């Protein structure tokens, strides 16, 4: 009776070969530091403003009685207020994680055309040429090849096994394909949930900055006597700059998320297709 129990070895796959940034919080922190430095020392540099008197350095640290207004777009962005570096952090994070996903999914794709690789592996399986199929996996690399390589190792083991029944062998092979796929998926989808979050967060933070800017504008209009034109322009600038950054962040995040999700879906489809073919080929030949 004991001889009929599946004598399974540990799963072949031990981890994904896809490389990526594991700790996105470090990326966010680095982007925040860069955004603050840009806000204070680039956008806030005195060369981007017109003012009375002599002053050099960042306008963020300028004396309170110094009256100034921007003379170019960079200065206008600075007038967006403290929400601007937060939005810049979100925008830079989307850019960095998008580039990181591009590199990661490029390595996950492997070398050569995936469709051609899948077709060649199917042809090898039809001829029962497992060794050739394994050579193709070594040459292709990537996530699809990793799943196929793990399945082929188990395929050979089941082919040589004389203890298990056909149904047990097929179940073991299916389990290997599922486990190998499960090892690859987290690496493929890594950091994309953060990008998806930024699609909404960027827009909401931009809206917050817009509301704050409009509040300042109405405060200037409600002042007794003639409205303070400087305060009014500051409020309007803050509202429009934050709106622009919020929309840009949300739009770029949506495009990035959908683009990479589609690429992952294509890889998943290829993995499912070749995994199914391996199992069906084994079932047909045994």
How many strands, which pairing sense, and closed or not: the largest β-sheet?
2 strands, antiparallel
Give the overall silhouette: rod-shaped
Straight-line N-to-C gap: 23 Å
The percent range for strand residues is under 5%
Number of DSSP-assigned strands: 2
Number of helices: 9
* Radius of gyration based on Cα positions: 29 Å
Global mean pLDDT:
84
What does this protein look like?
- By secondary structure, the protein is an all-alpha fold.
- It has nine helices and two strands; from the N terminus they run H-E-E-H-H-H-H-H-H-H-H.
- The chain has helices spanning 24-43, 73-78, 83-109, 114-126, 130-140, 142-160, 166-189, 192-222, 229-285, and strands at 49-51, 68-70.
- Strands 1-2 form a two-stranded antiparallel ribbon.
- Helix 5 (130-140) packs antiparallel against helix 6 (142-160), helix 6 packs antiparallel against helix 7 (166-189) and helix 8 (192-222) runs antiparallel to helix 9.
- The chain is rod-shaped, with a radius of gyration of 29 Å.
- The model is unreliable at 1-14 (pLDDT under 50).
